[in-house]
Amino acid sequence: MSAEERERLTSEVMRYVLFASHQNRGAPVLRSKIGEAMSAIGGAGTKKGAGSYIVALAQKKFLDIFGFEMIELSRAQSRNKRPAKTVNESQAASAKCYALRSVLPAQMRRKFVDDPSATAARGFAIVVAALVQISNGCIREETLFEQLAQLGVVSGEHLSENHAELGDVRALMALLVKRRIFMREHSSYDDPTMGYSYELAEGAEAIIGYENIDKFINESMRSQIATV
């Protein structure tokens, strides 16, 4: 592979990941889609083993130029989904994906990177993630909204009233599912009448961070104990 081809493919991978991340509000990008973007260029991009090499170069450039980690994740699979029956289904279940995450310290990231208008939505996502986590990683939809009502996040008959800062909470949850922070699946794959449940998806690690979820849970528990 020539230096020119290497540079061209690396630039294309970076362009594609940046565009896809922006378009999908930070949702992880599937490795297969990155491969398709490389194959579309042709040449060395179609050679076996070229993909991993170019992705590694893109990861280094993202860090050096933009201060972003291009972290590799495994696409999360719901425990409520029907087990894979074929090789293709099994491969899809273990698919790799990538997400961009700033390496700036939290204070600098909030000042220079994070969108101030998204602060309330981020806080909401952490609260929901904590509720999922303390429910053994899976929470029924009706239970989640009952707990959100107890916290004062949602109100009104059938959740018809919008939150002052969050707006339509159900629409916000749908957006967080699209961003792969959460998964929303039937509570039982063989009984759709049982409704839906939420679980953490791979985006929770990249966008929120498991350490932030655990920190929130621990701080909430300490504050509860302190008030007893």
Automatic annotation (TrEMBL):
GO cellular component: nucleus
SMART domains: MAGE (SM01373)
The organism's place on the tree of life at top rank: Eukaryota
Pfam families xref list: MAGE (PF01454)
InterPro entries: MAGE, MAGE_WH1, MAGE_WH2, MHD_dom
Span of domain MAGE: 13-213
PANTHER family linked to this entry: MELANOMA-ASSOCIATED ANTIGEN MAGE ANTIGEN, NSE3 HOMOLOG, SMC5-SMC6 COMPLEX COMPONENT
UniProt-recorded name of the protein: MAGE domain-containing protein
Species this chain originates from: Ostreococcus lucimarinus (strain CCE9901)
